[in-house]
Amino acid sequence: MTVTAAEGTDSSAELETVAQGVIDRATGKKPWTMLDLATMLAKPAPEFTGDTLPTAPAQVKFTDVLRKALKALPDLFGKVMPDEVRALDRHELKDLTDEDNAIVVIQAELAKRREAIKEAIRNHQDKAAEAAGLPEGTQRVAEGAAKGHWLLASAGEPHRTPVDGYADCWQQQLVKGKVDVSGGDIFRLAKEGLVTHAELLRCTSFVGRAFDEDKMNAFIRRDPERGLRILAMLTTRSAPSASLVSPKK
Questions:
Q1: N or C: which end of the chain has fewer CB within 10 A?
Q2: pLDDT tens for residues 19-45?
Q3: Which DSSP state fits 171?
């Protein structure tokens, strides 16, 4: 159900209603923070919709550019290491720039390969878990790097994949979803006509015109229903996700 903007505003945008329980919390005597109210207002976290199932990892090649950078780095690494604050001569400047360029190339190429490795491990964990029998209710990750993979970890209990010769395991770790207030979106809402210019001023600081949490709280206390509707439009809840931690020898 939606309602039009509160009386006394010049916005005709439709805004969702606010549950009475949230209004009661905002107007009650018990202290609250903006995040307390946002947590009550936040819609359910997104669920996996089946739009992006895992695929084979990217085929990252050992390119000539990477080979050249790796070959050059041993001669460049630490060649210029000033031990005082001073200007560089043109040869030092050239050597440092060459070293930096080689490092940037290597980091970029290795980052691609590392992500491909991690995706292969995620796929392995999925298939191994399916073969072992997934616990009832196991869900796929809805967003993030692990989107589409099975969420096998739980709070305080990583999903472990042992590796021969390693004391540690690959670990899928649960990343809890969270509620976030994107205060900067108030300017987008104003541009789209969802909040009035007067309301924008009531939610932002005078200096720099940045979102101001204290002013937003004051707005909510002064006009709970309207303030909470605006806060709801700034609030999102992320879904639980998974991080992948590599083992160390």
A1: N
A2: 999 999 999 999 999 999 999 999 999
A3: E
